[in-house]
Protein: Surface layer protein
Organism: Urinicoccus massiliensis
Amino acid sequence: MKTKFVKRSLALALSAAVLAPATFIQAAQFKDVPANHWAYSYIDAMSNRGVIAGYSDHTYKPAKEVQFLEVMRLLEGVINLSSSETANAKAQYGEVVRQMNVPTWAQQSICVALYRGVLDVETLNQAKKNGMVSYNPTAIPDRSSVAVYYARALKLKKKTDTSNLKQSDLASVNQDVKGYLSALVDAGVFDAYGASGKFEGNRGIRRDEMARITHDAYKYNEKASQEKTFEGKVTLVSSGIGNKQFVVEKGSEKLAVNYNESTSFTLNGKSAKAEDLKEGQEVKVTYKEVDNSLQQTGRLASKVDLKKTESSIYGWFVGMDRDRISLRYTEKQSSLDLIRGYLREEGSKEFTLPRDVKFTSYGLSYDPRDIKKDEDIVELKSVNGELKEVKVYKKANGYLEGTVEKIEDSKEYSVYKEITLKLNNGEKETYYVTDKYFSLPRIGDKVRYNVSYKVIKDTSLGRNDVVYGTVIGYTMGYPDNTITVKTYNDQELTYRLDKKVTINGNGWMDSLSQLDNLKGSNVEVVIKSGLVTNIQEKKNVSTYFTGIIEITDSKEIGGVTEYSARVIKGTYGIRTSFTFSLDTATSGIKKWHRYNVGTYVGLDGQPKAGEKFSYQEVDDKGDPVSTYWGHSIDNGTIRK
């Protein structure tokens, strides 16, 4: 290494961090650091800056392990307190340091370390007990401790996600140390792969390693001191030739900053483009002050983190031409009521429609020519400040298709149930049922409904189903003729009756006496398009079984297979085993497999002959392993 002569004042000699006590000659020719040494450039740079020094014999001793006080002396330079802060540190901790007999040349460094939070008094006391705080130390700090010291000196917070660490011996590294080490890797101070693929946290740290770490710590500080960050909402984007800039505001604060091809953009942590920067977006911008003659704002963004933001404007539809839509609008969702069809408008406004904007209604594509003026409510949905979708909520003749995700009681006045649907376009929305006689679907049902705004109106598009239970009541008075059934899981369900209902296979004309005769009876109620069309009384049955069984044995005789099964889970009070027979050709039931089943059980506690037997194979957790089935599907009939 070339000879370096560094002139230092007394102040520098006291405040600079060195790798040897001050009695050694500093910044000499290092005979043991040839130009091909891996750490040559780091030692050279730090020596030139007066941060590290060699020994009186003109050696650097790169493989020698660094002492505790030497680490603290180096960190004093990394921390780089102002003169007033250094005075405060000495005033606060000077007496403690003197009482611990810290060598004079290291006392200020220890005060600074305590002041910054690199150490606490207890840690310093433990280091002294371990023989590290003396003129002739008998122990050295390990690499794990040094990593923690440097992270704290640089004010780095330990991370919970340490996936950036690639060392092969991480299992032996303390979790807190890994958190700090991960932050140091992100800062460019430590290497993700360590030395030869390992971190080796229990060994000491060598002088050549310390030169590199200190060099990169200074580099990090220099970059951090130059760059600043600001978070807020973009209020203006200008991308003209030679004038690429944007304005970010937060409260009363405003920042105007330029960007160019060197500026990196991310959107929710993933790589993005400058074109993704839109007005209305929430951003975090990292920037630095630059020469005003080169940038109009005097600031240049090095990194812009965009956050995906969604916003909506609602309004009564007024009119539309090719690229504009007019609304009597509000930006406050609290001013909108899609149950009662009410919107408290803030004013009237024209909005520009991008060429690729989508028009939808309840998850389906919609022709904008069919929007009704002063009747339909429109939602303008923007993503990252750009209008992406125009959603139309119809006052009349709205239509939706979707899959039922959730059904809940509603806290809204005059609303019976809330149904959350996954619409055909994948969006999830909640719709409202105000009719207490509405035939409710089940979770997982695919449904089609007529709606007004967000209220499901027509039961004519209700589900098809078969319900099993006991008749507990009815009402007369068309169109609200109803029957109430208590199911075998204790639900009380009320359904509207069709104009003509078949009871026990006979056309229903005079229904009053027939319904009265059914009270207290076990019945099978067939529902089509939301209305009861057939009621079949079930005699000599004890209950309707629904649950999971496991086939324990089977034997075939003349095209009929007799199965033995144990009940895994099922209707309360049912016996723990079944024996039943099905046609072999149609059943497909296998021994030791489990099935979710539904069937009537006779007075003897066994599946009743002649009744339907619905089943679906499930796994050990009870999840389906075959296609969906419902009670209306007749998988088989119980044979005698």
User: Anything to note?
Assistant: Confidence is low (pLDDT under 50) at residues 1-18, 20-28, 627-633. Residues 149 and 177 are 10 Å apart (CA to CA). The chain has six domains: 10-204, 227-307, 310-393, 398-461, 465-538, 541-618. Residues 207-226 form the longest helix (20 residues).
